[in-house]
Amino acid sequence: MIRAILLFIILGVGLFVGSEYSGQQGYVLISIASKTIEMSVTTLVIIVVGLFLAVFACEFILKKILTTTFRTFNWFTIRKIRRSRRLTNEGIIKLIEGDFKQAEKKVSRWAKHHDNPLLCYLMASEAADNLGNTKKRDHYLALASEQDHARLAVELTRAKQQVNDGEIRLGLKTLQSLQPDAPNNPILLNLLKRCYIALHMWQPLIEILPRLIRFNHLTETEETELLQMAHLGALDNIAKRNNSHDLIEHWEALKRHDQKNPVIAAAVAQHLLSVSEGKEALPFMIRVMKKAPSAELYRLMADVPEAQRRDAKNMLIRILEKNDNNAEAHSALAKVYEYQQHWAEAQHHLEKALSIRTSISDYSRLSDVLSQQNKKQAAQDVSRKALSLLP
């Protein structure tokens, strides 16, 4: 635009000067060192205009050449990018199909020309890992780590491969390095869960449970199973110290929701029965049953040490006085009577429990109790009844 305006100005000045001084060409003398050049004003004007036109023509030709060169170069670049994308897409499909050799070949071949090389190198690493080639796997991860903003994706891929390949401790180390920067990443949390379970690191698993439940959107069943697994594993570790105080302390540190879980409560009671001669088991069960009674605790009450069985029996009797339809209390009380060889009382409570609900275990015990009283025919009838309930 500026050039066009400049040309119009020059033409306008030329027209003005030409009309003003027509027939008077004038004289121009140019002296350079020992050389002189003589010409008319008209000739000078024509030369200047010609030079301008030559410059503009050269500029136009040069621009055309550069534009053509750029377009040619750009065409080749775009072609390479398109080909790289096509091969990467094909490689991803091969990876999904399980053709890992072809997948690695396709995604790595033109990775440098892809507009996102990180994706290519990560896919190539996955393919190499599935082929069992750890050297290539780590090489592709090293190339991926050179890309911008690649750390999280690369390290998560590395950790997943290490865990899948059984390198649990290496995987855990990799994941722990990422925790400060991505504490709530669902993939990281899930991999940490797998590491903690494999290494029986129950307390760290318990610590990440709230975030694992929140960010991995677990179902209620999955949440319950994971919660129980973590707490039962932690209780197993604590029980190895053979210290009832540590078990009770761990129980008291649990959330109220967890304390009401019958499986966890029963596990604590079961461990208390096996440490410190079982002295703390019955007081613990009585305290818990006041807030959250459960069939598991009723069954364990009959297994307290012999010195505490009288207290357990009295507790069960009081429970039945309040609710005579408590089948588990009847079954537990029957077991106490079995230990004391009071067969008639045991028979009464087993029959009462079975009248409320069906239990193959109680039918089997009733058959034994009847045999102890020489009621062979009745014992056989009950035994057949128990067998008929088997799947």
Automatic annotation (TrEMBL):
It comes from the Bacteria. It is a multi-pass membrane protein. It is found in: Cell inner membrane. Residues 26-131 form the HemY N-terminal domain. Pfam families: HemY_N (PF07219), TPR_2 (PF07719). Its main location: membrane. Pathway: Porphyrin-containing compound metabolism; protoheme biosynthesis. Keywords: Cell inner membrane, Cell membrane, Membrane, Porphyrin biosynthesis, Repeat, TPR repeat, Transmembrane, Transmembrane helix. Coiled coil: none annotated. InterPro entries: Heme_biosyn_assoc_TPR_pro, HemY_N, TPR-like_helical_dom_sf, TPR_2. Gene3D superfamilies: Tetratricopeptide repeat domain. The chain crosses the membrane at residues 43-62. SUPFAM superfamilies: TPR-like. Involved in a late step of protoheme IX synthesis. This is Heme biosynthesis HemY N-terminal domain-containing protein.
